[in-house]
Amino acid sequence: MEVALLLWANCTVAETLKVKLVDQAVIQSRLQAGVVPGKEREDLIAKLFRDAGCEVSLQKVDRKSSNVICRLPGETPATIAVGGHFDFVDKGQGIVDDWSGASLLPSLFAALKTEHRTHTFEFVAFTDEETGLVGSARFVKELSKEERKDLQAFINLECLGMNPPNVWVSRSTPLLVHLLEGVANAIKVPLQGVNVDKVGDDDTHPFLDRKIRVICIHSVTQETLGILHSARDRPDAISIANYYDAYRLVAFYLASLDSKLPTQ
Question: Could you report the per-residue pLDDT of 122-149, keeping only the tens digit for each?
């Protein structure tokens, strides 16, 4: 389903954003596919990337696990990274935290791949977030000096679909929050600022430490917090309507970032 969005900036300049959204049924199928033992998640996300048409690379983190990376080359080496983690704690099924983020990555690749992009996009499914942000820390550590310079932003997708999308404002770069608000208003997806500083950490931290722009998009509220790390973390904890809205929002947001962020 190809969609073009005419996004107005300052009521005078129009920006056309083109994406090719996958159907809601595909989004739901990829979400539900995550009901597998944790040791199978790495192979599963790699398969979903390949099914979407992306060549996969693995970044070894330790002897047992790897980050799974899908790259969409752009016109320039300037890069926008998008991530979610596929590991989960040994309670519940880890669908909200954070298969909901990781399983959107192949569909976001599919949404962007049919149009020319200025930036290169890297979709990264991180391992070992729950044991101390190990996968994302390794990803950042292994960036060369030139790759760090080229990395213009990191967008983290964490615990989506329980409610309409939220943004962790206090953790996120103001410019990225402002641009997300513009896209949310244009496609009429509700967006709230909900800070979760006292709840825990997330994969933006290693990027933030290197002064890379970051934003965390999530759906955690006081009412839904108890689902995380509990037996209630199952597919039925997610509203598919809210989850698909999060997908639409992020797809158009990435297209907008491609035109708004610098390339050097």
Answer: 999 999 999 999 999 999 999 999 999 9
Residue with the larger pLDDT of the pair 5 and 160: 160
Segment 59-76, tens digit of pLDDT:
999 989 999 999 999 999
CA distance 124 to 66: 10
Whether the Cβ atoms of residue 81 and residue 104 lie closer than 8 Å to each other: no
Cis preceding linkage at 128, omega within 30: no
Q: Given this model, what pLDDT does residue 13 score? A: 46
CB 83 within 8 A of CB 154: yes
Taking phi over 0 as left and psi of -120 to 50 as alpha, with beta for the rest, 188 belongs to left
> Domain map of the chain by residue range?
23-260
Q: Is the dihedral angle over the CA atoms 232, 233, 235, 236 positive or is it negative?
A: positive
**Token pair of 92, please?**
């519940």
Write down the architecture of domain 23-260 according to CATH: 3-Layer(aba) Sandwich (3.40)
- What pLDDT sits at residue 198? 84
CA distance 153 to 207: 9
What is the percentage of the chain residues whose pLDDT exceeds 90?
90
Q: Rounded distance, CA 66 to CA 39, Å?
A: 11
Alpha helix (H) residue ranges in the chain? 24-32, 41-51, 100-102, 105-112, 134-141, 145-150, 174-187, 205-209, 240-260
Q: Three-class SS of residue 17?
A: strand
State the maximum Cα–Cα separation within the chain, in Å, rounded to a whole number.
54
Give the span between the Cα atoms of 229 and 247, in whole angstroms: 23
